[in-house]
Every structure is written in C-alpha cells, then in structure tokens.
Specification:
Length: 279
C-alpha cells in the first residue's frame, strides 16, 4: 500500500511537470516565429498588428518594480510585527483573518478600488503610480503571510541565545532572525512578482493604455503593459492571423520576463542562504 501511494504521488508530480512543459512548449512553438529584434525594440503600428511591443515591455517592468517597492517593505514589516511583537492575541488573529480574506478578493475588485482611491480621490489619474499602488495592495497579503511563516520557522533557541547575550529584541530580529528568514521571504517576493506581472484587471482601471506608442516619462504617465496588450490584440478581431501571431509572441516575451525575474530572485535567495550557513 505504501509503495502504491508513493508511486501515485510520483506519477502526479511528473504529470504536473509534464503539463507545465506542454504549456511552455505550445507557447514557444506558436510565439517563436514572432520574435525578432524589431518586435522587441519597436513600437506598435497599424492597430498593433505590426511593429513591436517595446512600450509594453517597459510599462510592465515599471509596474512590477513600482508594486514591489510599495508591497515588499510594508509586507515584510507587517509580517515581522505579527510574528515577533504582537504575540497571539485577538488582534493578531483578526489581522490574519483579514489578510487571508484580502488575498481571496478577486483582482478586478482591487482594480475598482484603485480607480476610486488612487485615480479619482488622490488625483493620480491613469498612471504608473496608481497601477503600482493597486498591484501592491493585491500582493500585500501574500508578502505578509510569507514573511510571517518564514519568521516562525526560525527556532526560538536562536532568539533566546541572542537575548541572553544582551541583545535587544530589535537587534535580535535585525541581526539573527531576519537574515535567517530572508531566503524564504524572497520566495514570497518571487510569487508576488509572478502574480503582478500577469494581472490585467487592476491595471485596466488604473494604468494601462489601449494604444500608446511611446515610453513613459514619469510615474504619472499612462503606460502599455504586456498582459493588457495581449488581451487587446487577442480580442480585437482585426487581421486575425497577424493578431494571433503577435499575441503568442507577446505571451512568450511575458513568460521569459517572469522567468528571468524568478531566476534572479532565486539566485539572490541562494546567495543569502549560503551567507546564513557560513555565518
């Protein structure tokens, strides 16, 4: 029975990997023909059925970086508070329930909220800033929960040893527990980046432009973005053959960007893990 269950688990794991490679292979097969230097560095032309996607690439990177600049510090500090300072009282339990609830809210609701608060109330307009703040709110629960679990995974003996040597609680967190938990915190960052880079609904209301063949000059400019660009050219209904080719090429570029960001974050995680082991 044990061998049967292990065999079943092994088969399901291989099936998951196979499905992933099938999806990636399909996108590469359909999109590789669209990739060229002009496609990567050019500007869209003729209703986005020709030209390139460079403004959408730049816009996507701006939104990803902007959202992480907002969500990562706040999420990490919130996770440290709930795991190291707040204890296990009713307030912490309430925060965890609200965080879990917030993580289950559909992304389009975040888009409507971001449009009302950042675009209209704060007067940011459709801009990188409004889109980044909205996407930051979207992934904030994920960063908080990942940080909290990473901090909880550190044995209490390390905290007690540091405190017994005369270090304060803040010094213990900054010098002992946070460096040890940081590799796992970066895992949360990887997941957050993956979700942000592929979201369409939030930026539809706050940042993304239908057709904008130029680069942004400030955080208050509207931008094109790869997910919305992919949606537009897939549903435009004009020049279907050219649009389909552009759509698969755009999807392939988006996957490559997410993969590159994930590899970079993984290398950073491995670097910090080695640093923790050597110290």
């Amino acid at each position: 029975m044990q061998k049967l269950m292990f065999g079943l688990f092994k088969m399901l794991s291989y099936m998951t990997i196979l499905i992933l490679f099938v999806i990636l292979g399909f996108i590469v097969y359909r999109g590789a023909g669209a990739i060229s230097w002009n496609f990567l560095t050019g500007y869209p032309e003729e209703g986005m059925t020709k030209g390139g996607i460079f403004p959408a690439i730049v816009g996507t990177l701006c939104l990803v970086v902007g959202s992480m600049v907002f969500a990562f510090p706040i999420g990490v500090m919130s996770g440290i508070y709930t795991s190291e300072y707040a204890g296990n009282n009713w307030l912490v339990k309430f925060i965890r329930v609200m965080t879990n609830t917030l993580s289950g809210v559909p992304s389009i609701v975040f888009g409507l909220f971001g449009m009302t608060l950042f675009v209209d109330t704060f007067g940011f307009g459709d801009s990188i800033l409004a889109g980044s703040l909205t996407l930051g709110l979207l992934v904030l629960p994920l960063v908080i929960r990942t940080t909290e679990e990473a901090m909880k995974a550190i044995p209490d003996s390390f905290r007690q040893g540091s405190l017994s040597l005369g270090a304060s609680r803040l010094q213990t967190i900054w010098k002992v527990t946070l460096p040890m938990a940081f590799p796992n915190i970066i895992t949360g960052l990887i997941l957050a980046v993956g979700r942000v880079s592929g979201e369409t609904a939030p930026i539809l209301f706050t940042a993304a432009a239908y057709f904008l063949p130029r680069l942004p000059h400030s955080i208050f400019d509207q931008v094109m973005a790869l997910p919305y660009h992919l949606y537009v050219i897939s549903t435009s209904g004009t020049n279907i053959e050219a649009s389909t080719k552009m759509a698969y090429g755009t999807a392939l570029v988006l996957i490559v960007i997410v993969l590159a960001i994930n590899i970079t974050a993984t290398l950073l995680r491995n670097h910090f893990s080695k640093k923790v082991r050597t110290n």
